[in-house]
Amino acid sequence: MNTDQYEEVCDLLDKICLDTLVLMEEEIQMNINLEKSMCEGEMNLAKCRYIMGPNSVSALNIPASPEENIDSLVSVTNSPSETIPNVKEYHLNSLDSNKEKFANPIRWFSVLAPQNLFTSQAMYKAALRWVVQMVNARNQLNELCDKFESLKLVKASLKKSIQ
């Protein structure tokens, strides 16, 4: 009986190792994609600053008066994961983007903004999505590592009982 349990624990450990390797590979790929999105966004922002002038696209253009509230266009929510029950999964949700309530931040810099500014905005939005996916993968990896450690203890106790 104990040998069957021991084999079952060993199989579970193998499966967790494989799942961990797959998740690590996915996380590395997400990190690469995040880096590409950020670099592309920064490059397009630099091109925009070159086209419009260094002071046209800067922190000085962001509204600083208390009358102008800056509302977020997206929010982050969490829910239990379908794959791993003890893990929370995070999601980006677009908020109701009424034209009156939410102003496109690009309009802070210019009425006729260059295409590079729109491309930069799209790249930063993509980077935000990659970050949320990386957080989800990291949470799953942490949960798998915890399961792996607990199964190692079970395996050790079963090994002692077999001998």
Structural key phrases:
163 residues; Helix Hairpins; two-stranded antiparallel sheet; mainly alpha; elongated
Number of strands: 2
Main sheet makeup: 2 strands, antiparallel
Helical run tally: 2
The geometry reads as: elongated
Q: Oligomer, anyone?
A: single chain
Derived from helix and strand composition plus strand pairing, the structural class reads mainly alpha
The averaged pLDDT comes out at: 86
Count of structural domains: 1
State the strand order across the main sheet.
Answer: 1-2
InterPro entries: Vma22/CCDC115 (IPR040357)
Protein name: Vacuolar ATPase assembly protein VMA22
Organism: Cryptolaemus montrouzieri
Short description:
InterPro entries: Vma22/CCDC115. This is Vacuolar ATPase assembly protein VMA22. The protein is mostly helical and 163 residues long.
Helices, strands, pairings?
Elements: H1 2-52, E1 74-80, E2 88-94, H2 115-162
Helix pairs in contact: 1-2
Structure description:
With 163 residues, this protein is mainly alpha-helical. The protein has one domain: Helix Hairpins (Orthogonal Bundle). Helices cover 61% and strands 9% of the residues. It contains 2 helices and 2 strands. It has helices at residues 2-52, 115-162; strands at 74-80, 88-94. A two-stranded antiparallel sheet has the order 1-2. The longest helix is centred in the first third of the chain and has 51 residues, at 2-52. The radius of gyration is 24 Å and the shape is elongated. It comes from Cryptolaemus montrouzieri. This is Vacuolar ATPase assembly protein VMA22. InterPro entries: Vma22/CCDC115.
